[in-house]
Amino acid sequence: MLDREQVHGIYASLLTAFHPDGSLNEILNRENIRKLVAVGVHGIYTTMSAGEVQSITFDEHQCLCQILAEEAGGKVVTIAGCTAPSTAEAIRRVKVAQELGIDAVANALPYFVALRKAECYRYFQDLAESCPAIGIFHYQTSRASTLLDASDYEVLARIPTFLGSKQTGNDWRLFMDLRRRTPDLAHMPVDPWLVPAMMIGARGCWSGLAVQNPPYILQMYQLASQQCWPEALARQQQYNAFAEAVLVPLTKLGYLDPVIDKATANICGFMHAGDPRQPFLPMEPEHREQLRQAIFERHQFMLYRRSG
Asked: How confident is the model over 17-26, as pLDDT tens digits?
């Protein structure tokens, strides 16, 4: 089981691959996991927002956990997203991950209606008591109806198997408060905040860029780990400029994580991620071509180039 001290590095978001008919593509998911292991990411996680957790059935969750354990177990950290609308269903999914030897799970709070703080605490306590042999992360996302602050994490830190959080926002006052009040927990951001967060003690990040051009984000992490701040910040600023100029306008058109991340990954060339599952539709050809041109003509650093 993963413990708090072992959490560090670049954790890559597996983009769940489907066949054109919408069924789970086990072969392609296995291939993509093997590619991530070979390129040197520190961990792989399934079924959060970009992994289309909301459309994954229980049987598909079990299949994804099994292939993750078989292809990456013992080689990199393995994490299963087990978010569900009820505590009972979340426990059911966490038990699968635990039984298959996955290192940890990452759960957003049950969504649709806001929980009281006492209900949030009880949710994670129930997960830990029902599944004591697996680590637990909180996936902090605005898509859940309740956000946690540093005082909440102080309560959750009392759970021995609670490891930390994936922080998707850009509230730096919150992140600094988390580092000050819960220093033993592993709070890590997403790609646009990797280097600034590591400057105040983060141990890495939860990364979508790691399935688009993994050497780029791995080098950024390595530079930050060595405290080569000017070089690390230069890479961070280059990526953030791409995100601001290219990705943000796509979100304003209504495209969300599964659509943008899969289209970008398919263009960058590291892996083939296929199309999202309905209700998400693939990016419109016009917008996909604009994304391709932006990457090839103005942001070539995003392109994956095999060494040797």
From this structure: 999 999 999 9
